[in-house]
Amino acid sequence: MPKKILTFDCYGTLIDTTPFYNEIKAIGAEQGLDGKQLVELFINYRDKLMFGEPFRLLSEIIHMALKHCQSELKCNILLPEFHRLIHVHQHLPAFEEVKPTLARLKQQGYSLVLLSNAQWSIMDFNLKTLEIPFDHVFLAEDVKCYKPNLQFFNHAASCVLKDANFHAHIAAGFWWDIVPASTLQWNSIWVNRKGFAGLDEYKPYTEITTLDEVLAYL
Predict the structure, then answer these.
(1) Planar angle of CA 92, 98, 102, nearest 5 degrees
(2) Tens of pLDDT along 83-101?
(3) Is residue 204 reached through a cis peptide bond, with omega within 30 degrees of 0 on the bond before it?
(4) What is the pLDDT of residue 94?
(5) Planar angle of CA 74, 89, 142, nearest 5 degrees
(6) How much is the mean pLDDT over the chain?
(7) Phi, psi dihedral angles at 106 (to 5 degrees)
(8) Whole-number pLDDT of residue 2
(9) Which terminus of the chain is less hemmed in, N or C, by CB atoms within 10 Å?
């Protein structure tokens, strides 16, 4: 029977990653470094490593990003904090409105699918935080690539969207998710929590500021 399917990004959409970056800032402050600069440096290396070859798990990328930060900052104080950061990542909170919204969508008969640049040893914890069971979960660890690579989206589509009579992709990351969703001509809903300006060439998409607003558009 055809299904109503909603695909979701996780981090920034359902799960708040702010504590992870705050922890990096805190590590910097503890070591006499500029915490804000350290976060920017870490993100720069993480994103470069995420799209390098060969494919690496998210935890390996975090470890290597810390190593590169150490090299650039000429210190050896960041790698010992690796497990501390992984622990924080595993225990990130959901945004306040997320769990009741997901529960409501489940009650309305939607099939919920998660697409995330993560690995199971981290996501297993995040799924427990979200509490609402997803019908399918696709991770970078499974697909061996990271969003916004279209291979990720096409793999998920080939597995779950064949029998969909309605589908929308819901995500906070514009470049990571809304752009590829536009390329594939998916219905997309941008959870623009930070009030960024979108780009007209990737419209149409629906724009909301918190996840619960999605209920008015479905």
Answers:
(1) 125
(2) 999 999 999 999 999 999 9
(3) yes
(4) 98
(5) 105
(6) 95
(7) -60, -45
(8) 64
(9) N
